[in-house]
Amino acid sequence: IETIQTFPDDFLWGASTSAFQVEGANTEDGKGLSTQDVRPVPAGLSDASIAADHYHRYKEDIALMKEAGLKSYRFSIAWTRIYPNGDDEQPNPKGIQFYSDLIDELIKNDITPIATLWHFDLPNHLEEAYHGWLGKETIHHFERYARTVFEAYGDRVKYWISINEQMMMVMNTEMLLGKGKKISYKEGLKYNMQACVNMSLAEKKAFQLCHEIIPDAKIGPSSAYQLCYPLTCDAMDVQAAMDAEEFLSYLVLDLSVRGEFPATLKAYLKQEQAYPVISEEEQKLLKKERPDFIGVNYYASLTVRKPGDPDPKADLFFFNTENYTIVNNPIIKTTTWLRGSYDPLGFKLALRKLYDRYQLPLMITENGYPQTEEPVNGIINDTERITYLKDHLHAIKETISEGIPVIGYHLWSFIDLLSGSQGYKKRYGLVYIDHQEGNKGTLQRIKKQSFYWYQKQIKEKGREI
Ligand code: BG6
User: Fold this and answer.
1) Each residue of 95-143: pLDDT tens digit?
2) For residue 322, which of 334, 310, 335, 340 has the smallest C-alpha distance?
3) What is the distance, to the nearest Å, from the Cα of residue 243 to the centroid of all Cα atoms in its chain?
4) Residue in 23, 105, 127, 165 annotated catalytic
5) Are residues 276 and 196 in contact, defined by beta-carbon separation less than 8 angstroms?
6) Looking at the keywords, is Hydrolase present (predicted)?
């Protein structure tokens, strides 16, 4: 199929961040502590107390977004700035004001705000008082938080993301059950699935409220879509790849869009006595509410084989279940930080599969290239990142040419930020932040070469991609 010359005129050329990874000021102006703020950090590494200091420097950062020509910016609202403990009776006015000012600044600079409700940073009090998402109370508190922010910002924010990478949170039993508690696989599975459904119920409440309070807004989840290749053409490997894809990707998205578990997975969970408790009323809610689009976070594909001995050298091997084993892909290019694979064609396949299954518009909410980098004579010549972005944007251009509606691209990340797993050595930004491990550095902003490259692509609507 012939590839279009330029991206559509209304394509959202954007970039992403999340609150705890950029804001810093994590106890300022009444903010409560989130699970990310209390997470143990190895000695010498940075925690979330300063990050990129975006809380104090957001105007400078938005000026840089304007200079890059961004059409949209995906950020997340820290639940703990709005409700410091999660279950407070009244919201924190200073928290409400901060995001209101940020949104105004974006709009003043012609940048469309895209707000995520929950990006990994659950109020820690909810974790301690109700076992986080295992407690039905958390659903209720999320609903109140969502209502508050829809009412506060709905006049200006027309794109919302409900939950970022739900499955990542579900897989992390430690986060659900409290630090250091060791449980068996089967027990963990049961808790994970209950927490997963509770998150989905909270998400459905958010869909419902968003549609009621802001009828002209659109809302959807951000999925960490894991495309899974079978290692060989052995039907057992193919089945393992299907099981992995179902568990890691379709489980959450099927709940989001169709309101039910994938059939095979449901049968398996029932057999394992791990199928969650869902009341009739909850089942109705799951079925009734639907998203308007699907947000896609794509970094890499996975390769799996039939269950067997785990391969501890495989990237992301901690995603293993007893139904499949994750292995390294022998063909796809690997890089130091990129979780094992560099796979733009996999991106195209993932988007096609998602559209075929759900028939909803797709918005890329994350995709990016991590590097360890420092300026040389004041310049950061990140050519590998540029090549990565070009290859992945080309995959999107081809996807759009093939008739699949991809409405925007939000690269991860606009500025260097605290990596979810590896601190400040792992940088993703178009803009360098002088933050050195251990909460040190001047926090000066330096535009990388990729900043100028992206600026040019936006201006020319991706003609040379
Ligand atoms: C996604 C998350 O999983 O990947 C981001 O939504 C995260 O918050 C990003 O930063 C990259 O992962 P990491 O572990 O390299 O920071």
Assistant:
1) 999 999 999 999 999 999 999 999 999 999 999 999 999 999 999 999 9
2) 310
3) 22
4) 165
5) yes
6) yes
Residue 25: which of 60, 1, 50, 43 has the closest Cα? 50
Classify 120 as helix, strand or coil: coil
For 66-106, how does the pLDDT look when each residue is reduced to its tens digit (9 = 90+)?
999 999 999 999 999 999 999 999 999 999 999 999 999 99
The domain ranges of the chain are: 35-45+65-71+124-459
In this structure, what token pair is assigned to residue 389? Answer: 């972005």
Cα–Cα nearest to 84, from 24, 149, 145: 145
Output the CA 120–ligand 1 centroid distance in Å: 10
CA torsion through residues 168, 318, 176, 29, sign: negative
Distance 272 CA to ligand 1 centre (A): 31
Residues listed for the chain: 465
Q: Identify the weakest region by mean pLDDT among 39-43, 205-209, 392-396.
A: 39-43
Beta carbons of 144 and 79 less than 8 angstroms apart: no
Q: What is the CB < 6 Å shell around ligand 1? A: 18, 21, 164-165, 168, 224, 297, 366, 370, 412, 419-421, 426
The answer to whether 364 touches 298, Cβ cutoff 8 Å, is: yes
Give the model's confidence band at 174: pLDDT under 50 very low, under 70 low, under 90 confident, else very high. low
418: CB partners within 8 A, 6+ apart:
20, 21, 22, 46, 48, 51, 52, 424
Angle subtended at Cα 350 by Cα 345 and Cα 354, rounded to the nearest 5 degrees: 155
Cβ partners under 8 Å of residue 95, min gap 6: 29, 30, 31, 78, 80, 81, 82, 84
Q: Which CATH class is domain 35-45+65-71+124-459?
A: alpha beta
**The tokens of 368 are what?**
């990016």
Looking at residue 2, the DSSP 8-state letter turns out to be: P
Within a 10 A sphere around the Cβ of 43, how many other Cβ atoms?
6
Q: Rounded to the nearest 10 degrees, how much is the dihedral formed by the CA atoms of 294, 220, 111, 451?
A: -40
Annotation says 165 is catalytic: yes
Distances in Å between the Cα of 6 and the Cα atoms of 113, 364, 393, 458 are 24, 17, 11, 10
For residue 2, indicate whether it is catalytic.
Answer: no
Spatial CA neighbour of 453 closest among 426, 428, 430: 430
Distance of CA 453 to the CA centre of its chain: 24
Rounded to the nearest whole angstrom, what is the distance from the C-alpha of residue 291 to the centroid of ligand 1? 23
